[in-house]
């Protein structure tokens, strides 16, 4: 067999005794049990077409690591595994059918992704007690939404290649399939661009203040480049290819975000020639107006050259350009920008931003890609073929849908995992604020923003968002996404009318046991985040 074996982390997911009906997250669409479980054995035969070889190999390894020791006097029965692609057309995209009975396991997928998701469900059925059994079960399942995303900001705090892979493993275990990689922001530039080496020589490093509370206005990037003791890092292009390939093996699409025209302190320290001439770049955030000079013709060329290298690294259809929280007042003080506004008859800063975004959209379209941006791209008018990622309230989603634009929903009210998940702030590491307990995540109803079937069809899906101002390491990151990511996975995958929080809570208890056994950090307080009052 060929292909890559899943790493040890993924191999640790199933490490406790489970019941067939209580464990799977996200909840399958249809699931029935057929009686007694059968023991897992080390004697295994796998039948699979060539296109599923990598999945088969990783599953074979997984079985080998879990099967109990064989008894020479009682040779084990052979477990027969069949992986196949459905040719009847009865399964929707990414759907699968899993049947386990009497030492026979069959996983049939609408496509390779469906087979992979069937394997994830099989792992969650496994009982890892001494008996090491698999229940006799039939599952027919498929996702609700095609975009089941997780966002990770690596600009404010940097995560290594191995840590990003660990994050991807967590996503795959819960059938999340889009990794929104926030590579660029004011506090740090994290992607190697060979044409512009100063972006990482200068923009990837800042004065180390990790021992201090996060302060937007305290970011200090030295225009002379990395200094001794600086904080930062970046990914080489080879490392990015490695991560994109790793994600692909787990049926995860990586969508890069190259933030523009705002949140650009790091790049403008490296290349101040693309800042407005009247704008002194003091610092990222409130004190500075870290925005590209849109009136400078060289700015567009510079950004398009960057996008050219980005497109070579990322095969995703969607390319995220950010475009949120732009300090447009800097443009109104800039003779180049106001001159462009006059020439193009643009009334205000919103119109100038729309002009800029439309340029980027047209360029990406010429390369066969689709622009997606935060919901601020609605301000001033949307580019014709752009998609909108909604982080604010539902009105922005409604506006995009009314104009026929696809949307991804990640409102901060339900999907910001950097927010507190408990009212007891003293019991957890500091957060940026907010309050998004697991109950709130699970209650999310994405389709409530749509008024008809045509609009519902434009909802690509949902996404959990992790900004890392206050998340400095992997332990803190895991404690923010668990258990909220599994809750969102059920919103993204399971039929809305089948979701039941009480059932989810019971299944979640089994998952907490395996997280603990695997050394995965998680929040283990009340799921509604209410502070437990001490008894008198």
TrEMBL record:
Catalytic activity: Hydrolysis of terminal non-reducing N-acetyl-D-hexosamine residues in N-acetyl-beta-D-hexosaminides
Keyword field contains Hydrolase: yes
Keywords attached to this entry: Glycosidase, Hydrolase
Alphabetized GO MF terms: beta-N-acetylhexosaminidase activity
Entry's EC annotation: 3.2.1.52
Ranges where the Glycoside hydrolase family 20 catalytic domain occurs: 145-495
UniProt-listed Pfam families: Glyco_hydro_20, Glyco_hydro_20b
Record domain Beta-hexosaminidase bacterial type N-terminal: where: 23-142
Keyword Hydrolase annotated: yes
Active-site residues annotated for this sequence: 325
CDD domains: GH20_chitobiase-like
Enzyme class: hydrolase
GO CC annotation: membrane
Family membership: Belongs to the glycosyl hydrolase 20 family.
Entries under PANTHER family matching the protein: BETA-HEXOSAMINIDASE (PTHR22600), BETA-N-ACETYLHEXOSAMINIDASE (PTHR22600:SF57)
Descriptive protein name: beta-N-acetylhexosaminidase
